[in-house]
Structures are given as structure tokens and as C-alpha cells.
């Protein structure tokens, strides 16, 4: 079956690429690993290698230098000797280069987690394009084989029964791992291969204790080799090309999945946005009083008491309604102004930074927000959040007040336009009604992407937030 | 066991029934003293006389109509068309009267009439003497259609035909009429609608009809040397059609090829394929294939004749193609 050469996704947020040139010609024999063509990236021209051997066949409408091609679009075929080019029927349906279905770039959902968008589009591509015989589908169901990952051996590349049975047989050769869900998760995060562990529970099931023991053992082993710890991190998210040269008594802490994603996203944000941070100070005396009122009143009724975070979520949402240009996303085609206001908020968990998203904050009451954010925060700490819970945010707030921080420069959560940093509420001398009196003051830091929004609108938005902190009645009545 | 030719086995069934049942008589051209063009009645004229072996002029519609009347009044006519092509001259009687009479009389009238003749392509019989036409009769309600492939089936199915109340097309492929095979002595009947598994196998199901059964088995013998395990089903009757046996086999193998000499469009293969898709869709591991004779009038030229009929090598290739799907 002809192997399709498609435009690869070379960057985390790459949606299309500028075709450079073919490094092989039509009819050339290629080996896996050969450099096939180039793609002009933002900063450098990248050479793309081929993963299948065979004969390169370029369709008549193959791309030429300078063509802008969506990720996943078909560029060429690798066929085997004697195999014909499967493009005739494709040409009947479209005069254009066919775009692999399901590989459409996630433009409208681009503000979600890029990692999961990539995974989703990948698997749906496979599902929609693999032909499978009815019998093979039935047998796959019976045997619990995921046929979307199989290669068909039928005449037209159809997955037939023998392919499914072979996959099932292969699967059975691998030792089955019986592990509790918790053990699986811990192992995944710590990078422990479960097949190397022996289970202690009945039936050989691997439990949390088994994984924790393995983590400890691995750590001890590392410490024996490298007795003192010096954190060695590469926030760029780029893999070191060789094992870093560690000074004596340093240690290498392997990346967890969360660390990797955080590193990628932070580096991407730092490299691609044009960040500007504005700071101001707001008088939070009335806000503190309001919070005390909520506390007294809600506690008596047994309701979830809105935290400062919940109050900031709500007042920020109302401010965003007034300043929609801050509730926006950058995309290569244009700036997306979001109709909904979904605000992510940073939660510092023992395993790293997570940002669950509070939905439709503007239209919800503080009581609802408090109840929902409580669940999200608990979920974050217990690793119970699905991808969906962290996707779709249109703005983010990050509160470092509890750590005694005032102003700081938060990093934008791409592809959002801005992020609001909130400092501690500190009682200090301030001028109020012409007198120096003790007031509860809070520092507000807004980082915005100057590509998306200019300084004036951003400043006006931050000023509205400042007013809302000082005079809660303004947004409570909104 | 003793061996008989296909035609001798059928005649044995007819002879034994005629000896027992005086209401059975044969009508046709050259079936009297001549004993039939294909020896279908050889020797019976001396035994049962001209009244029960009734030679006719070339007048198909006339004698079919008379036999229909005779059947309705309690006798068992056997119409011997010699070449089945000439049944077409009686088509109106058959479709409008013979097939419908039991229904129209609410079962008060029976129609125990046997319509027999040689079918198929072979021996340069050319375009007026090479037809099969059984898909046409299987299409119509009221007819039973038997297409035995081996001598023992020919005898057993003919016996069944001689004992039923329905009009039966009994179709004997001229290329297998003189094949020899083991045939039990004495009376036995093979019920209609019960396929025969001519060869058991696991890799693919081959439904072969009439003369194609032997060719298909030969192709399977050859492929067996390469480890191919094919199952061959001989339906024996097209109407009724034993779908249960075919479905069961497809459930086992997942792949189906229908080998039939008759034309492909609207044919038996199409019917079987449709029913398998209907009732056995989830068993299919490959598209259903059909191998048929060419959709053309039959040529006289022997090489051309060979070219339009599925040969052993064609069947072998079709099996390979099916397994490659």
C-alpha cells in the first residue's frame, strides 16, 4: 500500500508550513531516514526525513517552493516497485491537494491544549481512513484489539481478520501488566516501566506501594552516584543532544509529563509572544470586607465559601465583558475574539503547575463559581482532571498572594492574549479620602501579548480591574 | 459401491418410480423408441410402451399445456425437453399456468410435473443448444429448480421430484451427463434445499453449481498442495436455496466465491451474495467474488466456447484473488 508523505507538524502550534524544495526526485528510490524535502520554518529551514523505504512518486499537483501547505496535507507517495499511484480516484473528488481528513488544523479550538488536539486529530485520522472488513471489525471487538492502529494486509490495504488475530497474538506475547489505576498514573509520572515491577497484591497486581518503592529505589540509586542535588533544568523544552555534563554531586531529575508540557508551553510563549507587563496597586479594603461577609454568611448556611480567587475570577470576567479585546487569542489568520469567558487559574500542585478552567464565569453567580472551582482545585491536587478541564480557557489569572508576593511578570498562557497576576493583600499606609490611613492593598500585574492588543486597551482593562477591586459594588451590580 | 453414469442414475430413479406408479409418463421428442437424445429414457420404451413414453412433434407449448392439464387431473408427467433451450417456447404456459395453478386453486389442484432437459455449454452445441436459464426459473415463485452435479445426487433428487406436488425443473448439465460416480442401489430421496458440502475447508467458501462443482474441486486439489483449505458447497437445488449451509460456511471462513456458468447479472451469485451480506455481514472478511460464464451468446467455435466458460485455471485464479483480498 502506498505510504503517504504529508506535511509534518514541526512546531507545537504549527498549522501550516511553507514548502521548500524536494531533496529527492520523482521516481527516486528512498530509504527510511533519507532527507526528502525541506520546510521553511519561522526561524530556520528544516529538512524532513522519510520513515518508509520505496520509490518516491510525486503527484502532478505536488507542492513547489513557496507553497503554503496545511499540516497533514498529502505531498507525495512512497510506493513499492510495481505498485501504481493511488491518486486517480482522489483527483476525481478534488482538484486540490487532498487534505487528510481529520488533520484539519484546529483553528477554532486552537486555544485548547495543543498536545491533546494533536493526539485527537491523529487518532481520528486513523479511524476515518483505515478500511477494515466487517469480520475483522467483529473479531477485533471480540478480542478487544484496537484496530485503528493496525496495518491492513488486504489487497487494498484493508484490515482483514488475519491482521487482527496477529495483533491479538502479538499482544498476548507481551507480559500483561496488572496494575491499579493509581499505580499506573504514578508510574507514568515517574517514568517507571510497569513491566519491570512485580506486584505485591493478590494476583500479582501492582499497587501504589510497589511503584513508590521503585521510585525510591531509583532515587537512591541516583543519589548514590550523584550524592548532592543541583537541579538541572532546560525550560526551553528542547532535548539536550547529549547527556548533560553534571558537576560532581549534581543530579538529573527526569522530566515528568507535566514538566515537559509546562516547559514546552512556557518556552513557546516566551519565544513567540510580545509580552508587556503592567502593574498597579488597588485598595482591597472593601473586597476584604466583602469576603468576610461571604465567609460569615455562607459558613452558616453550609455553602462553599468563595475564596479570594473566586472573587477575582468573577470580577475579572465582568471586566473582560467590558474589554473584549483582552478576551482574545492570536491565530495566524487573525485575532479571535471569544464570545464566552472561560478563565483558567493556576494551581500549584506537588507535581507541577496545572491550570483548570472555570467556564462561563461572567454568567455564573459567585456561589456557583465557588462550588465549581473547589472541585477543580481538588481535582488538580488529586490528578483527577481530564484534558477537557484544562482546555478552552480564554484568559488566565495567577495568584501568588499566599506566598507573600506583590508584583510579578506572569507568562502568557498561549494562545490567550493576557494573564492577570495577583499579589498578596497587605495592610499598609495609604491615602484614603485625603488622609493617610491603614488600608488593605493588593498589587495587580497584567501581562499582555502586544501582538494581539495594544497598551492603551490593556491599561484600561487593568484600571477597570483595579476599580472593581476597590469598589466591589461596581461588579456585584453588573 | 457400484458406479453409474449420471444419466443412468437418473434413469434408474425414473424406471423404479414408473414401475411402482402407473400415473408417471414421459413426454418429449425422441424419447420413445429412440430412448432420448441423451439416453434419458433408454430401454424404458420396451418396458412401459408408447402410452407412457409419448413421442411428440416439435410443439413445446402444446405438449407442456397438455401435461399441465394432465398433472392437474392426477397424473405425473415428465416433460423431457432434450435441450432445455426449448422450454422457452412454453414459457407462457409455465409461468402463467404451471407455476401459479396451486396458488390459484388454493391448493385444491396439484401440479406434479417434472420439466427436465440438458443445460449448459459444451461440445460446440452453439447458441441455441447451450442455455441454462435456471436463474430465470429460480426467480419465479412456484418452481423447484434442481441442478445435481454428481450421479448419486441426480438419482436422489429425481426421486424427490417424482414424489412432490410441485413443478420441478430438473436440469442436467450436458458436460457431466456421462460422468461416472458411486450410486446407491434401491430407492432413496435427497430433499430439496439441502446443500452438499463437497469439500470441507477453512480458508474460503466456494459455492459451485452443476458442472462447476467438479472443476472447482479440481482447482482446490491443486491449491491444497500450497496449503489452501477451501470449502466447496454444492447447493444441489437453486430453489429452494440452502442459505443456512452457505452462511454457516462463511461464518467459518469469512470469504466467499460463487462459481456459476450462467450469466452474472441478476444471477444466482448475486442472490447468494445479497443474502450473505444481509445475514452474514459481520462474518465477511473480504468482498464477495463471483466467477461466471461470459455475458454473451454462446459461440460455436470450440476455443471461443472454452474462453467464455470458467475453466479450472480460472477458478484457481479466482480463489487466489479471493484469498488476497
Gyration radius of chain A, rounded? 27 Å
| Domain module count of chain A | 3
Strand content of chain B: 15-25%
Helix run count of chain B? 12
Reported by name, the CATH topology of the largest domain in chain B is Rossmann fold
C-alpha Rg of chain B (nearest Å): 20 Å
Number of domains of chain B: 2
CATH class of the largest domain in chain A: Alpha Beta
Task: Summarize this structure as a short list of keywords or feature phrases.
heterodimer; A: 478 residues; alpha+beta; OB fold (Dihydrolipoamide Acetyltransferase, E2P); Dihydrolipoamide Transferase; 3 domains; six-stranded mixed β-sheet; B: 325 residues; alpha/beta; Rossmann fold; seven-stranded mixed β-sheet; five-stranded mixed β-sheet; 12 helices; 19% strand
Structural account:
The complex is a heterodimer of chains A (478) and B (325). With 478 residues, chain A is α+β, with helices and mostly antiparallel strands. Chain A folds into 3 domains: 3-128, OB fold (Dihydrolipoamide Acetyltransferase, E2P), CATH 2.40.50.100; 130-173, Irregular (Dihydrolipoamide Transferase); 274-476, Chloramphenicol Acetyltransferase. Chain A has helices at 88-93, 114-129, 134-143, 161-173, 181-190, 208-225, 257-272, 285-301, 308-322, 366-381, 455-470, 473-476; strands spanning 3-6, 16-22, 29-30, 35-40, 45-49, 54-57, 68-70, 74-79, 275-283, 328-330, 335-337, 343-345, 347-349, 352-354, 357-358, 395-399, 418-432, 435-449. In chain A, the strands form 5 sheets. Chain A has a 6-stranded mixed β-sheet with strand order 9-18-17-16-12-15, covered by helices on one side. In chain A, a hairpin with a 2-residue loop joins strand 17 (418-432) and strand 18 (435-449). In chain A, helix 3 (134-143) packs parallel to helix 4, helix 5 runs parallel beside helix 6 and helix 9 (308-322) crosses helix 11. Chain A is globular, with a radius of gyration of 27 Å. With 325 residues, chain B is α/β, with parallel strands linked by helices. Chain B has 2 domains: 3-182, 3-Layer(aba) Sandwich (Rossmann fold), CATH 3.40.50; 196-324, 3-Layer(aba) Sandwich (Rossmann fold), CATH 3.40.50.920. Chain B has a 7-stranded mixed β-sheet with strand order 3-2-4-5-7-6-12, with helices on both faces. A 5-stranded mixed β-sheet of chain B has the order 9-11-10-13-14, with helices on both faces. In chain B, strands 1-8 form a two-stranded antiparallel sheet. In chain B, strand 10 (204-208), helix 8 (212-224) and strand 11 (230-234) form a beta-alpha-beta unit. The interface between A and B is small, with 11 and 9 residues.
